[in-house]
Design goal:
Layout (H helix, E strand, L loop, with lengths): L10 H23 L24 E3 L5 E3 L4 E7 L2 E2 L2 E2 L1 H17 L4 E7 L4 H13 L2 E5 L4 H14 L3 E3 L11 E3 L4 H14 L4 E7 L2 H16 L3 E8 L5 H9 L6 E3 L4 H13 L8 E3 L7 H4 L5
Parallel strand pairs: 3-6, 3-7, 7-8, 8-9, 10-11, 10-12, 12-13
Antiparallel strand pairs: 1-2, 2-6, 4-5
Helix pairs in contact: 1-2, 3-4, 5-6
């Protein structure tokens, strides 16, 4: 029996919430990473997670944390709601999944404490300490391996289990279980999709963010596996995509696809710069991820 199953504060109700919660989080991970039907992405069915339908008590705390529900049993959700470059779509999707899971579970004796780990081990440490001090019995998250290890270290000392989302098996250990965050497998599908359609030379336009770093690492590996040439990789900071787009445009005659693992909100500006640079997106296929699961993105002229 695992440490999680030993918890009995609310019996079958808590177990039901845990199961529904994990299903909801799994859907959020797919929503954040799964290629979605639309211009330049594989035709896979994507899941869109918005706020739940029906009354769910959600309170915003002064430190940016949130509280879902108001029951006696406390579960912490530690996710990257923010990063150096601003808000994180990954964390937002997971938070929405928690709200949806709570609404679907029918459990009313549980509180979910949503904590921002700020996409860093130090942030994960602070979030875990706060969650434990507030009486969390289970910790769900974090996402990134370094953060998981830090959260696991503190939770282990307090005798509380962690169910994390990292794909790095080294993050698992006594009391730390993994519900894998499979961004790599979905980027692999994107590159495979491009290769099957005869794309031979791809450029990458990658934001300097946590999601961008993970997606880029897998993109390079997948391109090598499929014998696709990576002509150039351009990284950019938020609000400063123009120089990177211009450099890609200068090499546009040598590429037939462009990979952009960017959030939906930022794609409006990226699309505008692609058009301004004269990139022929009728010939160059623009490839994205499930972060583009937004009607506004799929209607952008450059896509």
């Amino acid at each position: 029996m695992s440490d999680v199953d030993k918890l009995q504060p609310s019996g079958s109700a808590l177990l039901r919430l845990r199961r529904v919660f994990c299903l909801g989080v799994g859907a959020a991970l797919l929503s954040a990473c799964n290629p979605t039907a639309g211009p330049g992405v594989p035709g896979a069915r994507d899941l869109h997670l918005g706020a739940p339908v029906g009354p769910v008590e959600v309170g915003a705390l002064t430190d940016g944390s949130e509280q879902i529900g108001n029951g006696a049993t406390r579960i912490a959700l530690i996710v990257p709601l923010s990063q150096a470059s601003g808000p994180s779509q990954v964390g937002a999707s997971l938070r929405n999944a928690a709200k949806l899971a709570f609404a679907d579970s029918g459990v009313n004796d549980v509180t979910i404490l949503v904590k921002d780990d700020r996409s860093s081990p130090a942030g994960a440490q602070a979030a875990t300490q706060a969650a434990l001090s507030e009486g969390a019995e289970i910790i769900i998250g974090p996402v990134f391996a370094g953060n998981v290890k830090e959260a696991g270290r503190l939770a282990r000392g307090a005798g509380k289990p962690v169910i994390a989302f990292s794909t790095d098996s080294s993050a698992a250990g006594r009391g730390v279980y993994l519900l894998s965050f499979q961004v790599e497998s979905y980027v692999e599908r994107i590159v495979d999709y491009a290769a099957q359609r005869g794309k031979k030379s791809i450029a990458a336009l990658v934001p300097e963010s946590d999601y961008g770093a993970v997606a880029l690492a897998q993109f390079q590996q997948s391109a090598a596996n499929h014998n696709v040439r990576v002509l150039t990789i351009e990284r950019y900071k938020p609000g400063a995509v123009q120089p990177s787009v211009q450099r890609i445009a200068q090499a546009s005659e040598q590429i037939d696809a462009l990979f952009i693992p960017e959030q939906a909100e930022a794609m409006v500006a990226v699309s505008r710069e692609l058009q301004a640079a004269g990139l022929d997106t009728r010939r160059i296929q623009v490839l994205g991820t499930g972060l583009w699961n937004d009607a506004r993105v799929l209607k952008l002229p450059a896509l």
